[in-house]
Amino acid sequence: MEISENTIDSLEKIICGNPVYRDKQLSPYRTGAALVAFFNQFGFDDEYESGFPARWQYTKDKIRSLNSSNKIVSVIEAAVDPRHFLGKPYEVEKAVEYINQFMKFDGFELRMIGNFYKVCEIKKDLVEVSNPFTTIGLPNHQYLLEQIDKCDTKISDNDYEGAITNARSMLEAVLLDLEELIVGERQKYDGNLNQLFTRVRNLLNLDPSRPDITNSLRQLLSGLISVVNGISSLRNKMSDAHARTYKAEKHHAQLAVNSSRTIVDFIFETFEYQLKKGLIELSMPDNDN
Q1: Do 110 and 147 sit in the same domain of this protein?
Q2: CATH of the domain at 248
Q3: How many domains in the chain?
């Protein structure tokens, strides 16, 4: 991985805790000694002593020396380690947003995976998914984000069977969470993706047999049913979850991932639209009992 000088500038400010705009600071201040300790964890053996260069210059020099190596990823991720921000008057999300606005031009971005931010390659050949559950969230939300990231990673690593498996898992996670939000409790699921999609589709008023929808929309909704059937079938024949009938190639994996993401994005948008319009209601369980 290699980052640009603009990204190096932004990273330096976050690592040092220097102002990013005039007097606007986004991260905790690091002394010269703290900067030495920060970079020594990546293989350096520096000491803080008299004649130490300016903090910003030392930081940029270290970043540049690691640029294009596999350690630059660790440096970026360590710069926004949420633990460094605990108890401090700064929000790690703001620091991440600041770095991402520059790093996206390098083809990368920081995403929250589990409890930490990870550097992820921006996949221009894959469909992007809207921010999931912006209206309301569930614990499974983080699992969904992990599945989205795994799809990208496995395609990059040529693990096409694994990407197909995660594409289905991503779709299952969304459908199960939405069903729980609307019904109020997790429903039984025996692994039949087609039946699960039908249940959620009906809850979201997406039944193609409705008499009040146009023929073109009816065709699109019917097409979604076929796509879900295809994802389920493709996963059974090509994924790493079963004995494979066919060997998956990159275009198969991209088809499965993009199809799943398109459905997920449509489901998210439909859910939030109908919720705001009052066409559906949530039946969240009472967690206080």
Answers
A1: no
A2: 1.20.120.330
A3: 2
Per-residue CA distances from 182 to 34, 138, 285 (Å): 49, 12, 10
> Which residues touch 9 (CB under 8 Å, ≥6 apart)?
60, 102
Taking residues 181-191, report their average pLDDT.
87
Which two three-digit tokens encode residue 229? Answer: 């059937």
**Same-domain pairing of 117 and 147:** no
- Out of 122, 149, 179, pick the residue that ends a domain: 122
SS (H, E, C) 240-283: CCCCCCCCCCHHHHHHHHHHHHHHHHHHHHHHHHHHHHCCCCCC
User: To which residue do tokens 């293989």 refer?
Assistant: 43
Query: What does each C-alpha distance from 76 to 118, 135, 176 come to in angstroms?
Result: 8, 30, 34
Unique residue bearing structure tokens 């007097």: 23
| Domain with 234 in it | 127-289
Identify the band that residue 136 occupies on the pLDDT scale cut at 50, 70 and 90.
very low
* Segment 225-263, tens digit of pLDDT: 898 988 887 755 554 444 555 677 888 888 888 888 888
